[in-house]
Amino acid sequence: MKILTRKRTDIIDITSRVNSQIQKSDLNDGICVIYSKHTTNSLVINENEKKLLSDVSKLLAKLIPDGNDYLHDSIDNNAAAHLKSTVLNNSLAVPFKNKELELGRWQSLFLFEFDGPRERNLLVSLVKCDNFY
Ligand code: ZN
Question: pTM of the predicted model, to two decimals?
Answer without folding.
Answer: 0.95
